């Protein structure tokens, strides 16, 4: 039976024609001016649909979503929860606009949004591999792209999405909304990573509503609360809804390519690859060593592998675990995307995985490089299927594992070298130094805080600094303030520190401290810090529904956290000295913080 709703099927190759580029002015823009900057001929012959049919959507790259429902009324006004000035600068948006009614309407998906009639928002279709298993069609279930532009000053292209504003044909029966709690986490996680120099999507704002939605979460009195094992949420709770605005060079995922390969839609796949060249890898098109499409694809694969290798090494540098690394959460541009069940590691644990659905630890902290390699192999197999030269296609696929390992080891060596403050890496002695440190951090009773340890390591100059500096990172002292390390552990730590001090004696002090400060932040957005921010802002994920108007909540802690993350090594700017210390006792092991879903 034919569905009652007609959804417009559109190819990416008619999406953003280069010939119709209109860009931001060099002057800071108002909201209306930014939306008028959209490319004028992006879509052609579009028809808006209604409703959310549950079906496979074939032969297109994206569709126009249904008419958006207003998320605010006069009785339920919108309000600004969080705003990133550094992100606004990238969009050349005047930060003063963030307090205007037009800003709130534009970046929440309300019907008053100043869209260009010929360029309606759209939702894209993509598939999903989890490891080697394919799960079929997913797509933008609660995200819509509303804007695409180039910044005239930098030449950088940005695609802007709303998350949580509407349902789409890919919502799969869900409500298309986003919880305030998750939006605040995504804001702090994304902007925190950006400050730390890790490739990531950016978040412009979180707009609050006075709507409530039901979401699974952890009850205050769960019978499993004190379980040593992590567990998924145990009940439904009512949470405040919000809309998040995020942007990136594109939101192309591995799954965008894989779905067309799995369906045998080779023409759409080839068009998508050409689109990726234009929006993410223009250097591929301009490289004289790749005159043919087949050679361009070979270079394209190399660039994607390179970016993914660098990204995962950067995650390890700052103790970040993505949680869900399925192909629908992996950006072709090599940046962090879809910050959902993520966390920054507290106690060092090679097997750290906050995501309760990954029971086998396939995407755990130190398993992330292997997971990326699997994703790359599956994606590459899809991409090369459009090549005319079958021999070249096979050689590209066969080369990916060795290429990734070489590139990852290069970036991972740089990470370890910089975290230890070394100018050169001695493959044997320095690798042993790092491996022994990892073993000590893993095995020390009650654990060692990854971030605090490396932040204090830059202050170390002699063995006596173990007690004076490094003990700040040891969770043993949260168990018994009067207790000390057993002699065997003291001896092992002193031996390691003696070797380290001997090694850094060869390094110029000023350059060593500069490199270590850049790579060993004092502040990262830990889950407990984000918890305090979203609880204060009305984003409760507990049993107590607070129905006060959203404007009545307190956002100063969120603003202060944003400032602290922007200046992650400037202790004097830090809004809360607890940010510089190991996780407080009351938050250690807490469901929803130590693990989540």
TrEMBL record:
Protein name as it appears in the record: Selenoprotein O
Name any one Pfam family assigned in the record.
SelO
Question: Per its Swiss-Prot or TrEMBL entry, what cofactor is needed?
Answer: Mg(2+)
Q: Which domain of life is it from?
A: Eukaryota
Q: List GO molecular-function terms, semicolon-separated.
A: AMPylase activity; ATP binding; metal ion binding
Coiled-coil zones: none
Q: Which family does it belong to?
A: Belongs to the SELO family.
Its transmembrane ranges are none
- Keywords in alphabetical order: ATP-binding, Magnesium, Metal-binding, Nucleotide-binding, Nucleotidyltransferase, Transferase
């Amino acid at each position: 039976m034919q569905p009652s709703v007609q959804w417009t099927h559109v190819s990416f190759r008619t999406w953003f024609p280069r010939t119709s580029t209109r860009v931001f002015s060099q002057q800071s823009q108002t909201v209306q001016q930014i939306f008028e900057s959209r490319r004028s001929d992006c879509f052609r012959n579009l028809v808006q649909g209604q409703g959310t049919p549950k079906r496979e959507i074939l032969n297109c790259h994206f569709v126009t979503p249904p008419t958006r429902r207003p998320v605010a009324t006069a009785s339920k006004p919108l309000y600004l929860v969080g705003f990133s000035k550094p992100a606004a600068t990238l969009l050349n948006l005047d930060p003063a606009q963030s307090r205007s009614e037009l800003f709130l309407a534009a970046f929440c998906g309300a019907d008053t949004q100043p869209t260009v009639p010929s360029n309606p928002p759209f939702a894209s279709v993509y598939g999903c591999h989890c490891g080697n298993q394919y799960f079929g069609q997913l797509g933008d279930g609660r995200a819509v792209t509303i804007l695409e532009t180039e910044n005239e000053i930098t030449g950088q292209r940005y695609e802007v999405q709303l998350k949580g504003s509407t349902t789409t044909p890919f919502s799969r029966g869900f409500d298309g909304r986003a919880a305030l709690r998750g939006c605040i986490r995504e804001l702090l996680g994304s902007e925190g990573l950006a400050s730390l120099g890790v490739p990531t999507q950016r978040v412009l704002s979180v707009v609050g509503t006075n709507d409530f939605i039901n979401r699974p979460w952890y009850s205050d009195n769960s019978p499993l609360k004190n379980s040593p094992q992590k567990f998924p949420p145990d009940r439904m709770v009512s949470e405040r809804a919000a809309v998040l605005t995020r942007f990136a060079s594109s939101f192309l995922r591995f799954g965008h390519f894989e779905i067309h390969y799995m369906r045998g839609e080779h023409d759409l796949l080839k068009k998508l690859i050409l689109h990726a060249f234009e929006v993410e890898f223009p250097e591929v098109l301009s490289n004289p060593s790749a005159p043919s499409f087949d050679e361009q694809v070979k270079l394209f694969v190399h660039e994607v592998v390179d970016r993914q290798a660098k990204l995962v090494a950067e995650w390890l540098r700052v103790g970040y675990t993505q949680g869900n690394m399925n192909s629908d959460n992996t950006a072709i541009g090599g940046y962090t995307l879809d910050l959902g069940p993520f966390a920054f590691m507290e106690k060092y644990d090679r097997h750290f995985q906050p995501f309760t659905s990954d029971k086998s630890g396939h995407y755990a902290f130190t398993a992330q490089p292997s997971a990326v390699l699997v994703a790359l192999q599956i994606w590459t197999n899809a991409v090369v299927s459009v090549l005319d030269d079958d021999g070249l296609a096979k050689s590209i696929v066969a080369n990916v594992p060795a290429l990734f390992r070489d590139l990852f080891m290069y970036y991972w060596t740089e990470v370890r070298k910089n975290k230890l403050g070394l100018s050169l890496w001695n493959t044997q002695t320095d690798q042993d130094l790092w491996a022994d440190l990892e073993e000590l951090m893993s095995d020390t009773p009650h654990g060692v805080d990854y971030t605090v340890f490396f932040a204090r390591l830059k202050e170390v100059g002699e063995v006596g600094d173990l007690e004076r500096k490094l003990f700040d990172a040891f969770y043993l002292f949260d168990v018994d303030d009067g207790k000390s390390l057993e002699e065997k552990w003291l001896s092992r730590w002193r031996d390691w520190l003696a070797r380290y001090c001997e090694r850094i004696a060869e390094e110029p002090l000023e350059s060593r401290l500069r490199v270590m400060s850049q790579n060993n932040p004092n502040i990262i957005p830990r889950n407990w810090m984000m918890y305090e921010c979203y609880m204060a802002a009305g984003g409760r994920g507990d049993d107590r529904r607070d129905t006060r108007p959203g404007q009545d909540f307190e956002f100063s802690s969120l603003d202060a956290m944003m400032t602290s993350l922007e200046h992650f090594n400037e202790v004097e700017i830090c809004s809360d000295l607890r940010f510089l210390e190991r996780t407080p006792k009351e938050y250690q092991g807490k469901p929803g913080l130590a693990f989540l879903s």
